[in-house]
């Protein structure tokens, strides 16, 4: 029996320390809810869990990006919805102006609303913005959305110039057409006629009114009016002829405008259809990102998170074995006391 080295106590202490460490690890896992609390717990699993966590975080941000993209599309689509309404009203005005029962003055009144609507289309195109980004003025042909957690996972929102000249295919409000002689002429997008014919009409009207006023004044003074009457008749005929020409031209212009409005409606419809298709694609992308984030989170949880039931079983075992080891350590420490009993049994030396 040896007293210098208590091997049994050393072994009992080693087991006691081992089970205490296991109990501490179980307590840490249960309190944190994670199986991996440091890379020492599972180096390979920790690496995988970190990469999955980064991926899940990126998917969530990509989902928000896609939602912002839908908001942008809805902003542009809302503006184009109003443009569509304006084009519908423009077509109504063109149909009205094409009627042969109207005079130049009637068409001029109709054209005032038409020109105001034309300016409104330009205003909508110039002022439609999302987060200070112009959407419909032609400054951007596309906006690229980052809709994935990795580089290159993008989607483009195609945009076009939706102002008057762009959708009517005009230049400064003028449309180039080929006349009956095969020559290219510029037609003003209006419902009255060309500026030259309108000027002739106004000049003829002023000349006729001036001659009529002179005739009335001469009659009031009792002067000879035969020459003036002939002049008034000639200027009236010229005025009526120009008026007829202007009416025919106004009807032709109204018909041209009607056709161009139809083309403009088709152009805006095509742009809205593209935006609608992209919005639907983004909605599917959002659903995909959401499902991917859920599945990756589930996979990350299986690697990183703690099974509480299993860990409670481990903790209970470690706690029990720690108590047993402590009891055996106490027992092992008491064994050297038997040596004292043996020593006490020796005969005592005689005292001198």
Question: Could you characterize the architecture of this molecule?
Answer:
This protein is mostly helical and 352 residues long. It folds into two domains: 64 residues; 253 residues, f41 fragment of flagellin, N-terminal domain (Up-down Bundle), CATH 1.20.1330.10. Helix content is 71%, strand content 7%. It is built from eight helices and six strands; from the N terminus they run H-H-H-E-E-E-E-H-E-E-H-H-H-H. It has a two-stranded antiparallel sheet with strand order 1-2. The longest helix has 79 residues. It is rod-shaped. The model has no long low-confidence stretch (mean pLDDT 87). Its main location: secreted. Belongs to the bacterial flagellin family. It is found in: Secreted; Bacterial flagellum. This is Flagellin. Keywords: Bacterial flagellum, Cell projection, Cilium, Flagellum, Secreted.
Topology (elements, then pairings):
Blueprint: H1 7-32, H2 43-97, H3 104-127, E1 129-130, E2 133-134, E3 142-146, E4 154-158, H4 164-168, E5 174-178, E6 184-188, H5 195-221, H6 226-304, H7 308-334, H8 337-344
Antiparallel strand pairs: 1-2, 3-4, 5-6
Helix pairs in contact: 1-7, 2-3, 2-6, 5-6
Organism: Ligilactobacillus ruminis SPM0211
Family: Belongs to the bacterial flagellin family.
Pfam families: Flagellin_C, Flagellin_N
The N- and C-terminal alpha carbons lie at a distance of 33 Å
Share of residues in helices: over 70%
Number of helices: 8
Instruction: Give the class-level CATH name of the largest domain.
Output: Mainly Alpha
CATH H level, superfamily name of the largest domain = f41 fragment of flagellin, N-terminal domain
* Apparent shape: rod-shaped
**Uncertain residue ranges:** none
Tell me the structural class: mainly alpha
Mean pLDDT: 87
Q: How many beta-strand segments?
A: 6
Task: Tell me what portion of residues adopts beta-strand conformation.
Answer: 5-15%
Radius of gyration, CA atoms, in whole angstroms = 47 Å
CATH topology annotation of the largest domain: f41 fragment of flagellin, N-terminal domain
Domain Flagellin C-terminal: 259-343
Function: Flagellin is the subunit protein which polymerizes to form the filaments of bacterial flagella.
Domain Flagellin N-terminal: 3-139
GO cellular component, one term: bacterial-type flagellum
């Amino acid at each position: 029996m040896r007293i210098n080295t208590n091997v049994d106590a050393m072994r009992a202490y080693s087991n006691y320390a081992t089970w205490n460490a296991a109990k501490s690890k179980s307590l840490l896992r249960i309190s944190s809810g994670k199986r991996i609390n440091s890379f020492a717990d599972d180096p390979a699993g920790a690496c995988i869990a970190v990469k999955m966590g980064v991926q899940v975080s990126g998917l969530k941000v990509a989902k928000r990006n896609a939602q912002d993209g839908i908001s942008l599309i809805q902003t542009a689509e809302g503006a184009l919805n109003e443009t569509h309404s304006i084009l519908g009203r423009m077509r109504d005005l063109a149909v009205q102006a094409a009627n042969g029962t109207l005079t130049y003055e009637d068409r001029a009144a109709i054209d005032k609303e038409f020109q105001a609507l034309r300016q409104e289309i330009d205003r909508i195109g110039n002022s439609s913005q999302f987060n200070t980004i112009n959407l419909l003025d032609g400054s951007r042909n596309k906006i690229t959305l980052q809709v994935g957690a990795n580089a290159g996972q993008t989607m483009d929102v195609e945009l076009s110039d939706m102002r008057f000249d762009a959708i009517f295919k005009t230049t400064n409000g003028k449309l180039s057409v080929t006349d009956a002689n095969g020559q290219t002429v510029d037609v003003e997008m209006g419902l009255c006629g060309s500026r030259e014919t309108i000027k002739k009409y106004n000049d003829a009207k002023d000349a006729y009114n001036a001659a009529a006023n002179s005739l009335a004044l001469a009659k009031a003074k009792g002067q000879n009016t035969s020459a003036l009457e002939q002049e008034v008749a000639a200027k009236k005929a010229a005025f009526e002829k120009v008026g007829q020409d202007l009416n025919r031209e106004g009807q032709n212009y109204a018909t041209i405008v009607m056709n161009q409005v139809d083309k403009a409606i088709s152009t805006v419809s095509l742009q809205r259809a593209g935006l609608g298709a992209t919005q639907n694609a983004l909605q599917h992308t959002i659903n995909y990102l959401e499902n991917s984030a859920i599945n990756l989170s589930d996979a990350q949880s299986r690697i990183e998170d703690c099974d509480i039931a299993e860990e409670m079983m481990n903790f209970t075992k470690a706690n029990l074995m720690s108590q047993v080891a402590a009891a055996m350590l106490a027992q092992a420490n008491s064994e050297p006391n038997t040596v004292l009993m043996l020593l006490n049994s020796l005969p005592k030396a005689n005292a001198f």
